[in-house]
Amino acid sequence: xxxxxxxxxxxVWRAALSVALATAAYGVSxxxxxxASGLSVAxxxxxxxxxxxxxxxxxxxxxxxxxxxxxxxxxxxxAALLGVRNLFYSVRMSPIIGPGSWRRIAAxxxxxxxxxxxxxxxxxxxxxxxGFWVTGLGVFLGWNATTLVGALLGxxxxxxxxxxxxxxxxxxxxxxxxxxxxxxxxxxxxxASAVIAVVAVPWLPVGVPxxxxxxxxxxxxxxxxxxxxxxx
Amino acid sequence: xTLWTIVLAASVACLGLKLLGYAIPPRLFEPPxxxxxxxxxxxxxxxxxxxxxxxxxxxxxxxxxxLAGLGVAAVLYAVRAPFLVAVVSAAAVTALLRLVQx
Lengths: 232, 102
Fold this sequence. Notes:
Helices cover about 75% and strands about 0% of the residues of chain A. Chain A has about 230 residues and is mainly α. Chain B is built from four helices and two strands.
């Protein structure tokens, strides 16, 4: 089906394209919510083209929907806070991507949950790069196409929450996490992070509970707790 | 502040954060403790994302139809179902539950 002979590369292509497809479906709900919150079709599309990070984009339209343009400062701060996650992903991807200014700038734009997760789940640097680029480009094309569709159809779709797309996003992230859980160290980090994030939800601003899980990765990584094997 | 100011400022901020990570020289991440930590970042952040997306609405904790969807996905991943099958099933189960119990 795919124009790739090497079975490993074909497997990475399949993983990347299925993630891109699932994420694209979620883009419809972003486009529809954005226009329902008062953004124009062009504004919804600029967010998907330039900002290109689902969590931050949903945060902006959520805050605007509740507080209007007057809540602009909170909308920008919320988006930036959720975007800090991508800074950590950039740090993770940086040595894998390799040299070349333009390549690194393009990689930066495509550095999101999905591309980093599929990329870093692969066993070799060459397959890691393949996974990152195919997922990043695939999600970028799909997400922008469906953002436009969602923004144009808007009202016709009704309450997009009814489609269960929010649960689909959680399920997709679980699928990205799943292969890592075979390693004891990653499993311990994921479990501790999940508990800490949930406990923090009522106490910290939206977006921060996810960010504090970085502390778990740093502590376990620095002490190499449970680590006889190499982490990915 | 106009809507365009908000859209553009947020876009510049988020793109800048992504670029910042690549601007740090990669050799700074070579010492093993730092390398191990950065390699564990995706697992930590993904786990945090999954639970906050499933259990929270704003700053409120709640267990609703999303949890059932995630549970179905977990079972499907455990029996090695394809990624898309698990994602679509999670959405379908959540949508169905919302339909019968809005």
